[in-house]
């Protein structure tokens, strides 16, 4: 009984030993499979990691290439901008030079304009002074002629402008004709003699005995004037002026030889008919029948001044036009 129990105990222990060995074997197999699985999983994960790393490398290379391209473009753009800046600096330098040149030209023009303005002002002052001086000389000459003729019993008038000697022609010519009255011929001849004595010192190439020659006259006109009776007196007035001119013969012929500063004949003649009556005198008034000797001053300085004024005006216009375009 005891033996049977001991055999049963041994059989049970053997059974449990077999199960234990089986379980160990199964566990070993499980562990082996788990190891194989782990190894397979590790290999798969490694491939995935490698694949991901390769993709990251590719992406990094792309980013690097893009960055290099962007860097190259940035460098090119920087080079272009640097070139543009350098060109702009050159343009600015050129503009500055142009501005400096324009400023210098404007300064020079302003100086020229100021010089011309000063010249015009100076010339105006000189012309004004010269004009007053010539007018005073003319007034003294006419006053001297009037005084000398008055001492000889001949009455002549001087215009308010101090530029005309007036000899009433109703005492000089026969009515309606250019024929002198005896008194008129005598008075006109004395007037011409007085002019022949005095005028050479007021003409060009004055005689050496002139103390202070002053060739101030442009022309001295002998003018014929009439009233309105008859209606057409142009020819009559001209014929009367010509009759006075025709008296310049013999001792009086020197009057025809007098010249102004330009070398032109100093004496001239003109007929105005009834177109220039005396101030405030009706045209039919016989006092309009007269001979006048008009002393016209030289206009050379006035012409010079007019030329300077014209030049000044043109310079101002050019200066304003230039300033408008700058």
Explain what you see.
The chain is an alpha+beta fold. The protein has a domain of 167 residues: 60s Ribosomal Protein L30, Chain: A. It is 64% helix and 9% strand. The protein has five helices and five strands. It has a five-stranded mixed β-sheet with strand order 1-2-5-3-4. It is rod-shaped and about 195 Å long. The model has no long low-confidence stretch (mean pLDDT 81).
Question: How do the helices and strands line up, and which of them pair or pack?
Answer:
Blueprint lengths: L1 H150 L5 E2 L5 E5 L13 H17 L18 E9 L8 H13 L7 H4 L9 E5 L18 E8 L2 H26 L1
Parallel strand pairs: 3-4
Antiparallel strand pairs: 1-2, 2-5, 3-5
Radius of gyration: 63 Å
Helicity, as a percent range? 55-70%
Helix run count: 5
Note the overall shape: rod-shaped
CATH class of the domain at 134-300 equals Alpha Beta
Which structural class should the secondary elements be placed in?
A: alpha+beta
Q: What is the mean predicted local confidence, pLDDT?
A: 81
N/C terminus separation: 142 Å
What kind of oligomer do you see?
single chain
Weakly predicted, low-confidence segments: none
Lateral arrangement of strands in the main beta sheet? 1-2-5-3-4
The CATH superfamily of the domain at 134-300 appears as: OmpA-like domain
Number of strands: 5
Sheet with the most strands? 5 strands, mixed
CATH topology of the domain at 134-300: 60s Ribosomal Protein L30, Chain: A
Q: Return the CATH architecture of the domain at 134-300.
A: 2-Layer Sandwich
SSE pattern, N- to C-terminal: HEEHEHHEEH
Strand coverage percent: 5-15%
């Amino acid at each position: 009984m005891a033996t049977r129990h001991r055999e049963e105990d041994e059989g049970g222990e053997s059974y449990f030993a077999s199960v234990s060995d089986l379980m160990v074997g199964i566990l070993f197999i499980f562990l082996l499979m788990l190891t194989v699985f782990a190894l397979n999983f590790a290999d798969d994960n490694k491939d995935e990691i490698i694949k991901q790393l390769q993709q990251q490398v590719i992406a990094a290379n792309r980013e690097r290439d893009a960055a290099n391209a962007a860097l190259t473009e940035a460098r090119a753009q920087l080079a272009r901008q640097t070139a543009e800046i350098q060109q702009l600096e050159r343009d600015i330098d050129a503009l500055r030079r142009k501005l400096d040149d324009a400023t210098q030209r404007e300064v020079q023009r302003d100086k020229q304009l100021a010089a011309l303005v000063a010249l015009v002002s100076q010339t105006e002052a000189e012309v004004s002074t010269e004009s007053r001086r010539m007018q005073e000389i003319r007034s003294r000459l006419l006053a001297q002629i009037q005084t000398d003729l008055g001492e000889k019993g001949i009455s002549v008038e001087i215009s308010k402008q101090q530029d005309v000697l007036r000899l009433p022609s109703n005492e000089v010519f026969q009515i309606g004709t250019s024929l002198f009255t005896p008194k008129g011929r005598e008075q006109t001849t004395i007037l011409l003699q007085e002019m022949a004595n005095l005028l050479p010192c007021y003409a060009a190439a004055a005689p050496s005995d002139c103390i202070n020659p002053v060739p101030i006259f442009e022309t001295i006109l002998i003018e014929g004037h009439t009233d309105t009776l008859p209606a057409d007196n142009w020819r009559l007035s001209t014929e009367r002026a010509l009759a006075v001119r025709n008296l310049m013969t013999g001792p009086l012929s020197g009057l025809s030889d007098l010249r102004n500063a330009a070398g032109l004949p100093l004496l001239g003649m003109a007929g105005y008919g009834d177109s220039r009556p005396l101030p405030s005198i009706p045209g039919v008034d016989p006092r309009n029948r007269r001979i006048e000797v008009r002393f016209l001053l030289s206009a050379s300085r006035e012409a010079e001044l007019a030329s300077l004024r014209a030049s000044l005006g043109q310079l101002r216009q050019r200066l304003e036009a230039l300033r408008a375009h700058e």
